Amino acid sequence: MKLRAFGSRDDETGKDSPAPEAATEPTPEPAVDPRRPVGKGKPTPRRRDQERARGMRQGPVTAPLTRKEAKERRKAAQASMSKEERRAAKAEERAAREERRQLMMEGDDRYVLSRDRGEVRRFARDWVDTHRRLINWFMPLALFVIVFQLIPNPELLAFSQTLFLVLIAVVVIDGVLLGRTVNKAVRERFPDTDDTGFGMGWYAVMRATQPRMLRTPRPRVRPGDAI
Length: 227
Known about the structure:
mainly alpha, DUF3043, membrane, transmembrane, DUF3043 domain-containing protein
């Protein structure tokens, strides 16, 4: 019996005998997680994408340009809320608004008007609040003048007109003196500041004409205190 080597020529057919194929093992299939849905075919969407699809998230938030736009945004947000959610949102808005108001009254630079920001303006307010001036009586006297002018009496009308002219003269004279004094005090305390001149004087006069209980931010010192 003749042995034929692999790949040798067959004597009868004259053709090369095919080499035996290598044995291959079957590839094991990956384990399937029973908790994972089969045949999904696409990745799981992110949570923020799902919220946008349901209207819970509106994408990047930009500040409204006008009051009308802000009002429309609030209406759109409230339309997608339930009654309890709207009530809770209103309560949160009231609490946040009250907190901002209190911080503004305390003189927090993050919430006060631009005209009230800074150490220089805070010093000017304290200076006005610690001094008593004739100009402090402007609003109460102006109220009395208006009441007198409403009374149909010629004598009271003449008296109210004279009192009004005197009041205007006092306000002008004392206002000029107050503005110059506050500017001098500011320059001494803050020699490098540029916030002086007519703007600072007018700021001090406007605060001095208001009653203490109506001043914003509220006074931090009492008359006579050292600053």
